[in-house]
Amino acid sequence: MLRLLEYLVLSTVFLSSWHGVVANPISTDQSPPQRPFQFSESGSDMILTDTVDAAIDSILKDFKTPGGVGVAVVRKTPDAGWNVEAKGYGFAKLDGTKITEETLFGIGSNSKLFDILATGLLISNKSLSPGISWKTKIASIVPEWQLMDPIASAETTILDAMSHRTGLPRHDLILPAETVSDEIHRLRYLKPSTGFREHWQYNNHMYTVLSYLPPVLTGIPFETYVTDFILRPLGMSSSTCAEKIPSLTEFPKS
Ligand SMILES: *[C@@H]1O[C@H](CO)[C@@H](O)[C@H](O)[C@H]1NC(C)=O
Predict the structure, then answer these.
(1) Which among 36, 96, 132, 218 would be 20 to 30 A from 69, CA to CA?
(2) Of the candidates 187, 242, 207, 235, which has an alpha carbon nearest to the alpha carbon of residue 116?
(3) What is the pTM of this model?
């Protein structure tokens, strides 16, 4: 499941307020001056202009990358609408296929944000009975849940799991389990390295646990939940949760 999460792919990289960075490339003398972020007044003043296109192309050239980027600039308009610009720069494939605003990228741990969004939707779901909150204890909703530290096991809340403060270090190299349920069941065998809520320690397994909340509470698989309640309502029709991880042999040889 972790790998499924890691391969949740999106068509674009959202750069809601990064345009200052994009518009002010570090390495060229003819960089346009940096502008402060401004709300679009008419909805017509574009950020991704020819000048910005040229700046992004020159950054790609400086990095000598064979690849490229997808860029989206999303701004609120004064009338509470959205001004969205999306473009692709550079190459998606060795055969010369260009990156467009529909090109899919593996977003790695940025998929954790979708875990959080999905959990937020569950928390605001008034039809769930009993309902849950950020303070709901994982032990009260996930049957497979148990940690070696009895205090962490009993007390870990949804917010603790999200905040990397259960006392468990990464333990990324445990043998992959067949199912999410099995992976969660194995957490009880992993040694904590600090006390509960004592330190921040990055832990991927907790996000696997969070991805289990939609199926355990609504019966809907995580991938379907994210697709139906987040991606599709946002009009992200190309974006998807990958069904399967591409094996190394499927990557083009260079
Ligand atoms: C809300 O909960 C109900 C009842 O379990 C479920 O049918 C529905 O799909 C849920 N919707 C969301 C967005 O969580």
Answers:
(1) 36
(2) 207
(3) 0.77
Pair (158, 86) in one structural domain? no
Does residue 127 have its Cβ closer than 6 Å to ligand 1?
yes
How confident is the model over 38-91, as pLDDT tens digits?
544 444 588 999 999 999 999 999 999 999 999 999 988 889 898 999 999 999
**What pLDDT is stored for residue 36 in this prediction?**
59
- Domain span including residue 207: 110-231
Q: How far is the CA of 128 from the centre of ligand 1 (A)?
A: 6
Residue nearest to atom 6 of ligand 1 (CA): 218
CB-ligand 1 contact for 218 (6 Å cutoff): yes
pLDDT at 250: 55
Judge if the beta carbon of residue 121 lies within 6 A of ligand 1: yes
- Picking from 31, 37, 112, the residue whose alpha carbon sits closest to that of residue 74 is 37
Distance CA 96, CA 124 (A): 45
Q: Cβ(8) to ligand 1 under 6 A?
A: no
Q: Measuring from atom 7 of ligand 1, which residue has the nearest CA?
A: 218
Indicate whether residue 240 lines ligand 1 (CB < 6 A).
no
Please give the number of the atom of ligand 1 that sits closest to the Cα of 220. Answer: 9
pLDDT digits (tens, 9 = 90+) for 103-131: 998 888 999 999 999 999 999 999 999 99
Q: Do 117 and 95 touch, CB atoms closer than 8 A?
A: no
Same-domain status, 115 and 99: no
Q: What is the distance between the alpha carbons of residues 219 and 239, in angstroms, rounded to a whole number? A: 22
* Amino acid residing at 68: G
